[in-house]
């Protein structure tokens, strides 16, 4: 399975202007799709298979936690919530392979980038089932951060 055709859904008002993130995802062969709120997410989920969801914690029509309920039934989804802090953000792992994984440590931007890069590398060379779980990727990343 190649990474070509992988879909990432970016949920929230500010992802359209997150040029560094969207460019990096595109370079890793992810197709970027955007939704500004949870209502738009349901429309996209009806027409696209989604492999990765990146959402702001606070959305115009609710919270990212409400969004997680609509993703829980999708077996291949990995999801992160973006929590803004002072001049940066923390990325909270929320769903891994369709299972809730709240409780994993929050990732700083560099740790998050490394985790996504490792996910992209894995997906380009192996079937999703053979890829490491997020808790393994995050533990490895923390050892070298």
3D architecture notes:
- The protein has 145 residues and is of the alpha/beta class.
- Helices cover 38% and strands 28% of the residues.
- It has helices spanning 19-27, 38-47, 64-71, 109-125, 134-144; strands at residues 6-11, 30-35, 52-56, 58-59, 62-63, 78-85, 88-96, 99-100.
- It starts with 5 loop residues before the first strand and ends with a helix.
- The model has no long low-confidence stretch (mean pLDDT 80).
Order of helices and strands: EHEHEEEHEEEHH
Shape: globular
Q: What is the CATH homology-level superfamily?
A: Response regulator
- Number of helical stretches of at least 4 residues: 5
Gyration radius (Cα, Å) is 14 Å
Strand content: 25-35%
Task: Please identify the top-level CATH class.
Answer: Alpha Beta
Q: Mean pLDDT, rounded to whole units?
A: 80
CATH topology category name: Rossmann fold
Structural class: alpha/beta
Query: How many independent structural domains?
Result: 1
Major sheet: order of its strands?
2-1-3-6-7-8
Termini Cα gap: 30 Å
Biggest sheet architecture: 6 strands, mixed
Q: What is the number of E strands?
A: 8
Q: Return the CATH architecture.
A: 3-Layer(aba) Sandwich
- Amount of helix: 25-40%
Stretches where pLDDT falls below 50 for ≥5 residues? none
What labels would you give this structure?
single chain, 145 residues, alpha/beta, Rossmann fold, six-stranded mixed beta sheet, two-stranded antiparallel sheet, 38% helix, globular
């Amino acid at each position: 399975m190649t990474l070509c055709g992988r879909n990432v859904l970016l949920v929230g008002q500010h992802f359209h202007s997150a040029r560094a993130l969207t460019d990096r995802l595109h370079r890793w062969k992810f197709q970027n799709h955007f939704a500004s709120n949870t209502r738009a997410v349901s429309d996209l989920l009806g027409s696209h298979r989604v492999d990765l969801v990146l959402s702001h914690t606070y959305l115009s029509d609710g919270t990212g936690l409400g969004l997680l309920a609509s993703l829980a039934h999708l077996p291949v989804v990995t999801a992160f919530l973006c929590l803004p802090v002072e001049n940066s953000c923390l990325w909270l792992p929320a769903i891994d392979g369709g299972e809730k994984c709240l409780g994993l440590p929050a990732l700083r931007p560099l740790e998050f980038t490394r985790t996504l890069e490792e996910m992209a590398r894995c997906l380009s060379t192996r079937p999703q089932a053979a890829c490491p779980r997020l808790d393994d990727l995050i533990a490895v990343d923390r050892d070298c951060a």
